[in-house]
Amino acid sequence: MSTLLSATITRGNQDLRAVEQFGRFRKKLFIDTLGWPLRSFRGEEIDDFDGDDAIYCVVRSADQVVAGFRAMPTDGPYLAHSAFPSLASERPYPRAADVWEISRFGVAPGAGHGIAQINYGLMFRLAQRRQVKALVAIADMTYERYLAALGVRTVRYGAPQPLARTRSGQIQDIVAGEIPILEQTGMRFRKLLATTNSVEIIDETLVLGSEGIPA
Question: CB within 10 Å: which end of the chain, N or C, has fewer?
């Protein structure tokens, strides 16, 4: 890539500018583009799980947010458990400090396949450095198929259900599940992690330590 990407990892009470940028990115992507019926405040998409303890990864290109996600341990309140309990019909949602939820995972339209892979690579890199055993998420079927194509093994908590509705009235099937981190092996997964080698990572939570990796 010709433009150096940077990834800021921060908490809700640390880099307020990065968190605000990510909130505006979320509004533009999830509300304006995808039509999700979410709430916004002062141009940012926010919910009950945005707070000081939430960890954000904000990926920028030339100071423009192109991707990112939110992470938090599941031993406290989290989105999937609170908002979509019916999706865990076959096995319960976890409650553990070493199992984290990933939410508000997004990539800017037109950003390209490479940015999506980097966002996933950063997610897995963060999990490995924090010794997280599994990542929990809810997603539509497109993401599940995409992860399978990347060689990432996932485990469902139940069958997909038609629960997501856009403003246009379209119903989407979504599924809840987890990605067991220790079970991710093989060349394709290593290549996914290697995509982050082109990213300058600034970690303000001291999870990874500040590191700059030249492209």
Answer: C
Q: pLDDT by residue (tens digit) across 35-69?
A: 888 999 999 999 999 998 899 999 999 889 999 99
**Nearest in space to 19 (alpha carbons), one of 65, 78, 76, 73:** 65
Which residue from 195, 194, 192 is spatially nearest to 184, judged by alpha carbons? 192
- Which residues are bridge partners to 45 per DSSP? 40
Partners of 70 in the beta sheet? 56, 103
Give 193: exposed, middle or buried? Use CB within 10 Å, 0-12, 13-18, 19+. Answer: middle
Task: For residues 152 and 146, give the distance between their C-alpha atoms in angstroms, rounded to a whole number.
Answer: 9
Strands 5-11 and 199-203: parallel
Which residue ranges make up each domain of the chain?
Answer: 5-203
CATH number of 5-203: 3.40.630.30
pLDDT tens track for 89-100: 999 999 999 999
Distances from the Cα of 170 to the Cα of 73, 83, 162, angstroms: 31, 19, 10
Residue pointed to by tokens 């194509």: 149
